[in-house]
Specification:
With about 525 residues, the protein is mainly β. It has helices at about 1-25, 110-120, 280, 300-310, and strands at about 25-30, 35-40, 60-70, 75-80, 85, 90-95, 100-105, 125-130, 135-145, 150-155, 160, 170-175, 185-195, 195-220, 225-235, 245-250, 290-295, 315, 320, 340, 345-355, 360-370, 375-380, 385-395, 410-420, 420-430, 440-455, 465-475, 480-485, 500, 505-510, 515-525.
C-alpha cells in the first residue's frame, strides 16, 4: 500500500510537467522564399536630395510566397529572412485555412554587436595568445559596457579593460547563442491547424529602409535643338535582407502616409573597438588583428555564416563601416509605360531583379533619341544695382510630337555636350514629377555672358505706381532667348504675354553682342 501511494504521489507531481510539455507548440521554420515582389515608394520628405545610404527613408510593400509544412495542432511558424524594417502591424498572411492567433517581430539580429548587447552584465571567456611563446591564456570576464563606443570588460581580479587594447591577439567566447537572437530578421506567428498539411502561403507587409530615385542623362545634339535622353531608376535597400530574383516595381508621386514611431533596428550598429592611451597599453604595440568571436559547440555553424554574409565590412583601423559597392548598372530595354495607381504612377520592371542587402540597383527607365529642346536664359525680376547673370535653361515639352510624351518621375538630370570629340558635363538640374504634355525645365547653371540689371525709379509716397527700368545684355556671338518672370501686376496689362498666377512672363530675344532695355510700370494700389 505504501509503495502504491508513493507511485501515485510521484505521478501527480509529474502530471503538470507532462501537460506543459505537451502544450508547448511545435516550431516550424520557413527559411526560403519561393517568389518575392518588392514595390518601392520614395521617401515622402526627401524632395530632390540624395538617398540616405545608411538607412533609406522610403518604404516598400513586399509580397513573399512561401511553402510550409504545418503539423496538426498549435505551432509557431517562423518566417525567417523578412525585411529588416518590417512593420509588424501591417503583416498579413493568406493561405492559412484556420487563421492566425498571434504575430511577433523578432527584432534582435545575430551579429557581433548584437551578441555583445545580449551579453551585457554576463560572463564570457576571454582568450589571449602570447605571440612570442604561443601560450594561450583563458580567463572569465563580465561585459560591463558595449557595443557602442567600445567594449569594457571586468576581469576575475576586479580590474577593467577595453577589448582589443592589450596588444595581444584576443578572442571572446560565448557559452551559447541567446534564444532571443535570430540569424535573420524574423516574423513569427502562432497558428492552429486541424490537420497536418503542406501549404503555399503569401506574406504581405510594409517595410522601412527602402527608397528609389530617378536619374536622367541628357546629351545635346550638335544642332543644339535636340536631346538624347536616357533615364534610370535607382533602388536602394538599406536592410540586411536580400530579395534575389524579385519582381521589382516603383511608385512615383507623393502619397499620404501616417507617421509611425521609429522601429528598433535589427542590428545595434557595427562593433567598433576603441582604446585610450595608458601606460599599460602604450608599452605594447597594437597589432592589426581584429578580435575573433567564437562560440561553444552548441553554436550552429550556419548562424555563424549568416553573420559573415549579412554583416557590413568594418575598417578596424578607422572604426568606420562601409556599405558594399552598388552592383553595376544593367541596361536592358526600358520598362513599359507607367500605369495609373489612383493619382500616382506605377512602374513595373519587366524582368526579375536582385534587390540586394545594403546595396543599390539601377534599371533602365526610358531611352529617347531625338527630343526637341529649346535653350533659354531665365530669371525672376528683382531690384539690383549691378548686372546679374541669368540662368541657362533647357526646355522640353513632354509631348509625343516632340519626341517624349511619358510620365517622368522626379529626379536629377546630368546634361552633356560633345566638344571637339569629347563628351563634357555642362551641368545638373533637378526636376519634379512631370505628367505627359507638361513643360520640363532643366536649369543647368548661370551664364555670365547673358545678364540683366533692374532699377526702380524714385516715386512719391502717395504714388499708385512705380516704374522699373530693365536692361538685358548679351555678350554671346548669337541671339539669346530670354524669359523673365515679373512677380507683380503690370499696368497696362500686356496682351500677348503668358500669365502665371499673379505674375507675368516677359519673353524677348536679345541680339548677339547687343543689349536691350525695357520699362515696366508696377501697380501698387488697387483703384
Amino acid at each position: 500500500m505504501r509503495g502504491a501511494f508513493l507511485l501515485a504521489w510521484i505521478a501527480a507531481l509529474l502530471a503538470p510537467v507532462s501537460a506543459r510539455a505537451q502544450a508547448e507548440p511545435a516550431i516550424v521554420v520557413s527559411a526560403n522564399i519561393d517568389e518575392a515582389a518588392v514595390t518601392v515608394y520614395r521617401a515622402p520628405n526627401r524632395g530632390g536630395g540624395a538617398i540616405n545610404p545608411n538607412w533609406p527613408q522610403g518604404f516598400a510593400f513586399i509580397t513573399e510566397t512561401r511553402t510550409v509544412a504545418l503539423p496538426a495542432g498549435t505551432s509557431v511558424l517562423r518566417f525567417e529572412g523578412v525585411a529588416e524594417g518590417l512593420l509588424p502591424e501591417t503583416a498579413v498572411v493568406s493561405g492559412l485555412p484556420d487563421g492566425v492567433t498571434e504575430k511577433n517581430r523578432d527584432a534582435r539580429l545575430l551579429t557581433p554587436a548584437g551578441l555583445v548587447d545580449a551579453y551585457l552584465k554576463r560572463s564570457v571567456t576571454l582568450r589571449r595568445t602570447n605571440r612570442a611563446t604561443g601560450k594561450v591564456v583563458e580567463q572569465q570576464a563580465v561585459i560591463q559596457a558595449g557595443p557602442n563606443g567600445g567594449v569594457i570588460l571586468q576581469n576575475a581580479a576586479g580590474g577593467f579593460e577595453a577589448l582589443a587594447c592589450s596588444g595581444l591577439p584576443e578572442r571572446m567566447l560565448y557559452p551559447r547563442v541567446p534564444k532571443d537572437l535570430s540569424a535573420k530578421p524574423t516574423l513569427s506567428i502562432l497558428v492552429d491547424s486541424k490537420a497536418a498539411r503542406t501549404l503555399t502561403l503569401q506574406l504581405l507587409y510594409l517595410a522601412e529602409g527602402f527608397d528609389w530615385a530617378a536619374n536622367y542623362v541628357a546629351d545635346r545634339g550638335s544642332d543644339g535643338k535636340t536631346l538624347g535622353l536616357t533615364g534610370w531608376i535607382t533602388v536602394a535597400n538599406g536592410g540586411v535582407t536580400s530579395f534575389p530574383g524579385a519582381q521589382l516595381n516603383v511608385i512615383a508621386g507623393r502619397l499620404n502616409k501616417v507617421h509611425s514611431p521609429p522601429l528598433p533596428r535589427s542590428t545595434p550598429g557595427p562593433l567598433i573597438l576603441r582604446c585610450w592611451p595608458m601606460d599599460i597599453t602604450s608599452s605594447h604595440p597594437l597589432w592589426e588583428l581584429p578580435p575573433i568571436i567564437e562560440f561553444e559547440e552548441e553554436f550552429r555553424m550556419d548562424a555563424a555564416e549568416d553573420v559573415v554574409v549579412t554583416g557590413s565590412r568594418i575598417d578596424r583601423r578607422e572604426g568606420l563601416m562601409y556599405l558594399p559597392a552598388p552592383a553595376p548598372a544593367i541596361a536592358p530595354p526600358p520598362p513599359p509605360p507607367a500605369e495609373d495607381l489612383g493619382d500616382l504612377k506605377f512602374y513595373r520592371v519587366p524582368f526579375r531583379v536582385d534587390v540586394s542587402a545594403k546595396g543599390q540597383k539601377q534599371v533602365a527607365l526610358l531611352a529617347k533619341d531625338k527630343v526637341a529642346v529649346e535653350q533659354l536664359y531665365a530669371a525672376t525680376l528683382y531690384q539690383n544695382n549691378q548686372p546679374q547673370p541669368l540662368m541657362m535653361r533647357l526646355r522640353v515639352q513632354n509631348r509625343e510630337a516632340d519626341g517624349l510624351g511619358l510620365a517622368l518621375p522626379a529626379g536629377t538630370a546630368a546634361v552633356f555636350e560633345t566638344i571637339g570629340g569629347q563628351r563634357l558635363l555642362v551641368g545638373e538640374a533637378a526636376i519634379g514629377d512631370k505628367a505627359k504634355d507638361e513643360r520640363v525645365d532643366y536649369d543647368i547653371g548661370q551664364s555670365p555672358a547673358v545678364q540683366f540689371r533692374a532699377v526702380v525709379q524714385e516715386r512719391g509716397a502717395k504714388d499708385a505706381y512705380q516704374t522699373w527700368q530693365v536692361t538685358l545684355t548679351n555678350a554671346r556671338p548669337f541671339d539669346a532667348e530670354v524669359e523673365m518672370l515679373i512677380p507683380f501686376a503690370i499696368d497696362p496689362a500686356p496682351e500677348d504675354w503668358e500669365r502665371r498666377g499673379s505674375s507675368w512672363v516677359w519673353r524677348v530675344r536679345v541680339p548677339a553682342n547687343d543689349s536691350l532695355a525695357q520699362s515696366f510700370r508696377q501697380k501698387l494700389k488697387d483703384d
